[in-house]
Amino acid sequence: MSNNRKSDDAPNTASGFQIAMILLGILVTPVLLASSSLGSQLELGNAAMVIAVGSLILTVLAVINICIGEKARLPTYGIVKFSFGNQGAIAINVIMAISLFGWIAVTANMFGHSVQDVLSGFGLSVPVPVLVAIGCVIFVASTAFGFEMLGKVSKVAVPVIVVLMFVILFLATGSEVQVIEKVQQLSFGAAVSSVVGTIIVLVATSPDFGSFVHNRKHAVIAGIVTFGLAYPVLFFVGAVPSSMTSEGSLLGAMAVIGTTLPAAVLLVFACVTGNAGNMFQGTLVVSTLLTRFPKWKITVALGVLATIIGSMDIMAWFIPFLLFLGIATPPIAGIYIADFFMNRRQGYDEAALESEAAIKPMTFVAWGIGSLVGFATVNGVFTLTGIPSLDSILIASIGYLLLCRNKSAKGTVQTR
User: How confident is the model at residue 246, as a pLDDT?
Assistant: First the structure.
């Protein structure tokens, strides 16, 4: 990727709306999972307020991060080299690679079970491993041909997803199911944390998509359309059936309402777009670790591994592990945001990395402190903002600024 790719007419760039479509395709799967859980624990009025606050936080962070990607014309895993060092960034990339592959495998597993549910409605029985393998072929095909193919998949699938979500909303609100009153509701802070935490890893790695956007105006459009407009609407719509029935899953809620087919089909489409995006990001980060292999081979390898792991019964033990890794990712964003405002507002000069320290210990200290604070607040040891992922971002940013304030930035380059 080049620092010279700036204008609307430059090749291989996309508009803010195209980037928003891709991001929406990725975030639908976690939204469907989290919105149902949130809806089952909150009245709709309270849920709307919580979703609005959480979405505002995500929008601010996403706009900053996508703009950083636009400025650097580098993926997230290239940007972190400037704050962690050329060699130090390898450790960060390994953590992100494990996290992304984990979600690829989990989503592949979810795809297999969702398709099985759809087929069972027609009296067909197909083993989950076979369906997982078919899903992984689709995910690889949607990704191996690059960013342009990912955009085409999103253009087709995202409108279908939106229509299905509103079909589900219509069925839910038009049903005769009696709304169940919540005996004990989730606290405001915990609820906002769930809205933010659901997609904070995607926000933290959103420079990947900012590196492909036309210019800064389109970067801002992508962040606002995705997280300021579409995300809260989809989250609220997803919460309605579970808020009415107090069921913790969309399929469970729709079973109470009387039909599960639209929800099962929705989950299938969501898994396709979500895992195509996961595979795209996973390929980017693994390619920084295995530089000798072409990206399409890495994508195929990820697909084969996802088929094997995703065919196992992994949901019970793997998701907690992935959530733990999710605590370590937001502080990385806090650090590269602080580094950008302190050192890189004039641009990123990759040549300068050769003259800087290969490993920057103080950055790892700031990251460690941010991660520990996130772990402590998510487990209720103490409270800062009430939103653990935001706590870890703020602490990591402040720690980086304090620990590195006396170090001058080397080799920044004017790119505008």
Answer: 79
Please give the Cα distance from 110 to 211 (Å, whole number).
30
Q: Is 70 exposed, middle or buried (0-12, 13-18, 19+ CB in 10 A)?
A: buried
> What is d(CA 328, CA 205) in angstroms, rounded to the nearest whole number?
13
Number of residues assigned to the chain = 416
3-class SS at 213?
Answer: strand
CA separation for the pair 398, 338 (Å, rounded): 8
Which of 283, 212, 282, 242 lies closest to 16 in space, CA to CA?
Answer: 212
- Model confidence band, residue 323 (pLDDT cutoffs 50, 70, 90): low
CA distance 155 to 164: 15
Of 358, 348, 392, 373, the closest CA to residue 69 belongs to 348
Q: How far apart are CA 242 and CA 260, in angstroms?
A: 13
pLDDT score of 410: 44
pLDDT in tens, 247-285: 777 777 787 877 778 888 888 888 888 888 888 888 888
Identify the helix (H) or strand (E) that includes residue 384. Answer: none
16-316: CATH topology is Hydantoin permease (1.10.4160)
The predicted model gives 38-66 an average pLDDT of 90
Residue 125 is given by DSSP the state -
CA distance 246 to 255: 12
Residue 197 is encoded by which pair of tokens?
């935490």
H-type helices in 75-215, by residue range? 76-84, 88-120, 128-143, 147-173, 188-197, 200-204, 207-210
Q: What is the secondary structure of 346-361 as a DSSP string?
A: T---GGGGGGS-SS-H
Q: What is the C-alpha to C-alpha distance for residues 20 and 219, in angstroms, rounded to an integer?
A: 9
Structure pTM?
A: 0.81
C-alpha–C-alpha distance, residues 227 and 60, integer Å: 9
- pLDDT recorded at residue 293: 84
Q: What per-residue string of b and e applies to 310-328 under the rule 16 or more CB within 10 Å gives b?
A: bbeebeeebeeebeebbbb
φ, ψ dihedrals at 213, nearest 5°: -80, 155
Q: What is the pLDDT of residues 61-107, one digit of tens each?
A: 999 999 999 999 988 888 999 999 888 888 888 888 887 888 888 88
Instruction: Give percent above pLDDT 70 in the chain.
Output: 88
> 402: how many CB neighbours lie within 10 A of its CB?
12
Q: In one letter, which amino acid is 254?
A: M
Tokens of 352: 């300068």
Reported confidence tier of residue 326, pLDDT bands at 50, 70, 90: low
